[in-house]
TrEMBL record:
Species per Swiss-Prot/TrEMBL record: Rousettus aegyptiacus
GO molecular function: serine-type endopeptidase activity
Function: Mediates the proteolytic cleavage of HP/haptoglobin in the endoplasmic reticulum.
One GO cellular component, as annotated: blood microparticle
Endpoints of the signal sequence: 1-39
InterPro entries: CUB_dom, Sperma_CUB_dom_sf
Gene3D superfamilies cross-referenced by the UniProt entry: Spermadhesin, CUB domain
PANTHER family with a match to the protein in the record: COMPLEMENT C1R SUBCOMPONENT-LIKE PROTEIN (PTHR24255:SF26), COMPLEMENT COMPONENT 1, S SUBCOMPONENT-RELATED (PTHR24255)
Phylogenetic classification of the source organism: Eukaryota, Metazoa, Chordata, Craniata, Vertebrata
Protein name from the UniProt record: Complement C1r subcomponent-like protein
GO biological process, one term: zymogen activation
Stored Pfam families: CUB (PF00431)
Domain CUB: 38-162
Length: 174
């Protein structure tokens, strides 16, 4: 088979010195492993969609941070509600936390679990952006202990685009 011959660029050994260009993917993999910060941009739709912490529903790992920006189409805001929330509790949420920011509202930081005396869980609160975007940052700083908590599974949230201008008895609407 021509695509699988021994000297093929794609299937050659990554340790080969015959072509230094073959090492690029190994270098890229190492960089991605060393930099646990991740980010993404999601487009909100009118039907609710899920957003979860890394590895959810399995316990999340320590030493990572991810930022997700949720954008809504023109004329819409972003609505976010947590369905499940289980982060390591700490005083003032200075350890593991979720921070929500959007234009028109102060950043809000949450941690802990529903019913926990320590921390600040979001409960069933609804977050609606005044603009067309909302940012959620999940942070689980590395600790001197094990990199996995084995206790806390993170969060599950639902987000969707909601009209900034709800219709009020529109009789000419299709």
């Amino acid at each position: 088979m021509p695509g699988l011959r021994r000297g093929n660029y794609l299937w050659g050994s990554p340790h080969s010195t015959s072509c230094p260009g073959k090492m690029w993917w190994l270098l890229l993999w190492g960089v991605l492993q060393a930099c646990p910060t991740q980010g993404s941009v999601l487009l909100a739709q009118q039907l609710p969609q899920q957003l979860t912490s890394p590895r959810y529903p399995e316990p999340y790992l320590k030493g990572q941070e991810s930022t997700t920006v949720i954008e809504a189409p023109k004329g819409y805001a972003v609505r976010l509600v947590f369905q499940e929330f289980d982060l390591e509790p700490s005083q003032d949420c200075e350890q593991d936390s979720v921070t929500i920011t959007a234009s028109g509202m102060d950043p809000q930081r949450f941690c802990g679990q529903h019913g926990s005396p320590l921390g600040n869980p979001p409960g069933q609160r609804e977050f609606v952006s005044s603009g067309s975007s909302l940012q959620l940052t999940f942070c689980a700083p590395a600790s001197s202990e094990n990199k996995t908590t084995l206790l806390h599974k993170g969060f599950l949230a639902l987000y969707q685009a909601v009209s900034k201008y709800p219709s009020q008895g529109c009789t000419l609407c299709p």
